[in-house]
TrEMBL record:
Residues 52-72 form the HTH cro/C1-type domain. InterPro entries: Cro/C1-type_HTH (IPR001387), Lambda_DNA-bd_dom_sf (IPR010982). It comes from Microbacterium flavum. This is Helix-turn-helix transcriptional regulator. Signal peptide: none annotated.
Length: 111
């Protein structure tokens, strides 16, 4: 079994719960806390799920929106079944159990 982790980015819903519906309203809040992001970067941070976020940006978001990291990021853990290869049987043992069949070489009969 493999474990799959799914992360959710909830910045937009946290902003909406605080009465902030425009990304342009978030930029001055971040600037007050020493985070200088462009208008486009703030827009992408709100509308898209980021692959990585700096810790100072996360802490500024939590402080500006008066929320915790758990409110911004949700992590869902799932156990996924390992894929079975085509033609592989579940009861088959290790490769050491498979032995080749010895070939028999026969000479052609002469008349």
């Amino acid at each position: 079994m493999t474990v799959e982790l799914e992360t959710g980015w909830n910045l937009r819903s946290v902003m909406a719960s605080r009465g902030i519906f425009q990304t342009s309203k978030l930029k001055p809040l971040l600037e007050e806390r020493g985070i200088d992001l462009s208008r486009e970067q703030v827009y992408r941070l709100v509308t898209q799920s980021p692959q990585r976020v700096r810790l100072d940006v996360l802490s500024a978001l939590c402080d500006a929106l008066d929320c915790s990291l758990d409110d911004l990021v949700t992590i869902t853990r799932r156990e996924a079944a390992t894929p079975v290869a085509v033609g592989e049987e579940a009861t088959r043992g290790s490769i050491g159990d498979l032995r080749p069949v010895r070939a028999a070489i026969r000479r052609p009969r002469t008349k």
